[in-house]
Specification:
With 296 residues, the chain is an alpha/beta fold. The protein has a domain at 119-242: D-Maltodextrin-Binding Protein, domain 2. It has eleven helices and nine strands. It is elongated, with a radius of gyration of 26 Å. It has helices spanning 2-28, 51-63, 77-85, 104-108, 126-129, 137-144, 171-179, 197-206, 237-242, 261-270, 273-281, and strands at 40-46, 68-75, 91-94, 110-124, 134-135, 162-163, 210-215, 226-230, 248-256. Strands 1, 2, 3, 4, 5, 6, 7, 8 and 9 form a nine-stranded mixed β-sheet that branches.
Length: 296
């Protein structure tokens, strides 16, 4: 009997050790707090205006999610949305609602995540900025439709206006068209056309008489170009929040209705209060601070 008890005790100890070992293996596959570790890949493309924010969020997201690979590209809102719709990327970043770039059926299959507000600023070469501080909305329309071709006609130097334009796939172009130049089509300058916002700023800075438009975040640390007020109202976050400056839009990250776990986790992070404090630091606006009732 005593031998039987000894054997049973030994078996019990072995089972306890085995179960503890299993438990240890299971917890190693989890993050602190009992949540499953996030793994996998995320691909995204689209708006160059939103790219700095998404890249910044991706870097910070990976600090605690080292096993997630994230690949991000620009190319324009329309491009990103179309790539999402055909399944070649996980996220389509856009300055405009999906239904403005896709068919109604395609847009209905996507999930919209509003992440921030983006202000669009009109920028000019420094040689113009010294004398032209503000233009009327009509003058801006006439400049971008090539009815006005010399800066002297708006109080500037006797110098030809050089347009730096964006392709029709650009969401920033769509916002500028609707809210800055009264819905008219701007003239195209193929030699200086780009939807890369960084290159656009460089082109305006390097070409005398140049004018273009760009998301405000690209100007946070840039002193190479000047900005134009419209009807005396400067392109600032404060003026955007109050509604006095009208050239802005909500920034969207679109996903599929059934996004994979890594994508869901990233969306949760970029829309969280934890990351929210970075939004204004990067030059974007916080949606909840908008005082205007305008629907963009």
């Amino acid at each position: 009997m005593r031998l039987k008890k000894v054997v049973l005790a030994a078996v019990a100890v072995m089972m306890a050790v085995t179960m503890a070992g299993c438990g240890g293996q299971q917890s190693s596959d989890k993050k602190a707090g009992g949540q499953a570790a996030i793994t996998g890949s995320i691909t995204g493309s689209g708006s160059s205006a939103l790219l700095p924010l998404v890249k910044d969020a991706a870097e910070k997201f990976k600090v605690n999610n080292k096993d997630v690979s994230i690949s991000l590209n620009a190319g324009g809102s329309g491009t990103g949305l179309k790539q999402l719709a055909d399944g070649s990327v996980d996220m389509g970043n856009s300055d405009v609602p999906a239904e403005t770039k896709l068919s109604k059926e395609q847009a209905a299959k996507l999930e919209d995540h509003k992440v921030c507000v983006m202000t669009v600023a009109t920028i000019v070469n420094k040689d113009v900025a010294d004398t032209v501080k503000s233009v009327t909305r009509q003058q801006l329309e006439d400049i971008f439709t090539a009815k006005i071709t010399n800066w002297k006609d708006v109080g500037g130097p006797d110098e030809a206006i050089v347009l730096v334009t964006r392709p029709k796939t650009s969401g920033t172009r769509a916002l500028f068209k609707q809210y800055a130049i009264n819905g008219v089509e701007e003239s195209s300058n193929k030699s200086l056309e780009t939807d890369n916002s960084g290159i656009l700023v460089q082109s305006v800075a390097q070409n005398p008489g140049a004018i273009g438009y760009v998301a405000l975040p690209y100007l946070v640390n840039d002193k190479t170009v000047g900005t134009l007020a419209i009807d005396g109202v400067a392109p600032t976050l404060e003026n955007t929040y109050s509604g006095s400056y009208s050239v802005w839009g909500y920034e969207h990250i679109y996903t599929g209705k059934e996004a994979k776990a890594a994508v869901k986790a990233f969306i949760d992070y970029i829309t969280s209060d934890t990351y929210g404090q970075r939004i204004e630091e990067l030059g974007y606006g916080i949606s909840s601070k908008m005082q205007t009732k305008d629907v963009h």
